[in-house]
Amino acid sequence: MMDAMRHEEKARQAAESLRMEKDTAFSAMREAQAKSERLQAKPFLKIEHETDSGGWASYPADSIDKIWEELCAGRPELDFDRGDETYHISLQDLIQENTRTKKKRSIRISLDVPEYWSMSSGLEKKDLPRYLAIGPDEEIFKRVRILVPSQQGLEMERVVRGSVFHHFAFRGLSACDLDTVTIKRAWRIEHPTLFRKYSQCRSTLQEQSQSGVPDINPPIGEELSELAQRLLDRDVRAPVNEVFLFHGTCTSNIRSIVARGFDFRLATAGFYGHGTYFASQSCKSWQYCRSGITDEARYMIIARVSLGKPYYTKQVERNRKRPPEGFDSVVANPGPMEGHHQSHQSHQEFVIFDRYQAFPEFVVEIDEKPNVR
Question: What percent of the chain has pLDDT over 90?
Answer without folding.
Answer: 21
